[in-house]
Design brief:
Radius of gyration: 17 Å
Largest sheet: 7 strands, parallel
CATH topology: Rossmann fold
Distance between the termini: 12 Å
Number of helices: 7
Strand order of the largest sheet: 1-10-9-6-2-3-5
Order of helices and strands: EHEHEEHEHEEHEHEHE
Low-confidence stretches: none
Bound molecules: 2-phosphoglycolic acid
Mean pLDDT: 96
């Protein structure tokens, strides 16, 4: 695991954006795993700048997002499909038909989830997976529990995640109770992983994830077992790391 602690959020964003840009330049037909949340907004803005400056093209890229709220359509402003369109897809030359976000709809949950897994496999697997980390250590919406979920599945969100995410909704009541997320196994099959973390409220959990024991109670700790991980933390999120 390579750990980079930057001096600022902007530098964290640029360093992480460069990781994604390098992946796309090395293989213009690469498969990117993408993430939502507040943390990656800056790095998506940097990728849009790279595209606008003619330094980067997403024309051949396929993408798979980590997760989506159950019950929200892609047109809902708090849906992750909406987030991705607004922060990246609408501003670059990616073929929107080649962008995938798990469906927040669909009654037959097992079918929707297994079709998502199949689509990732048929695309050749994820070359680079971008991750944030939740204040409770979740990656995607894989919440702390007694096991590491293997595949894409429907998950009940913890109260702490709903409270953390309620800042983007009008009230806590409006935050969905369920999400559909890639599993830990899905994430671990990515050939490379870039995790970004920003802010002092991530400092302790980032330390637990990187330097503590590997445990499903800190889902991100499993990344210690992945052979190709880059963690990019800003000064505040990296403040408690010992190395
Ligand atoms: P954040 O979310 O970037 O908004 O902090 C990260 C996450 O919950 O995975």
């Amino acid at each position: 695991m390579r750990v980079i602690v930057t001096k600022s959020y902007d530098e964290m964003s640029r360093v992480a954006a460069d990781e994604l840009a390098a992946c796309v330049r090395d293989n213009p037909a690469c498969v990117l795993g993408l993430a939502t949340g507040t943390t990656p907004i800056g790095l998506y803005a940097d990728l849009v700048s790279d595209f606008e400056a003619g330094r980067l093209s997403f024309a051949g890229v396929t993408s798979f997002n980590l997760d989506e709220y159950v019950g929200l359509e892609g047109t809902h402003p708090q849906s992750y499909r909406y987030f991705m369109n607004k922060n990246l897809f609408d501003h670059v030359d990616i073929d929107i038909a080649h962008t995938h976000v798990p469906s927040g709809l669909g009654d037959d949950d097992g079918k929707v989830s297994s079709e998502y897994e199949l689509a990732i496999r048929q695309a050749g697997g994820v070359d680079l997976q971008l991750l944030g980390i939740g204040p409770n250590g979740h990656i995607g919406f894989n919440e702390p529990t007694d096991h590491f979920p293997v595949a894409t599945h429907r998950v009940e969100l913890t109260e702490s995640t709903r409270v953390a995410n309620s800042r983007l909704f009008d009230s806590l009541d409006e935050v969905p109770r369920y999400a559909r997320t890639m599993g830990i196994g899905t994430i671990m099959r990515a050939r490379k992983i870039v995790l970004v973390a920003s802010g002092e409220n991530k400092a302790q959990i980032l330390r637990d994830a990187i330097e503590g024991p590997v445990t499903p109670m800190v889902p991100a700790s499993i990344l210690q077992f992945h052979p190709n991980v880059v963690v990019v933390a800003d000064d505040k999120a990296g403040a408690l790391l010992s190395r």
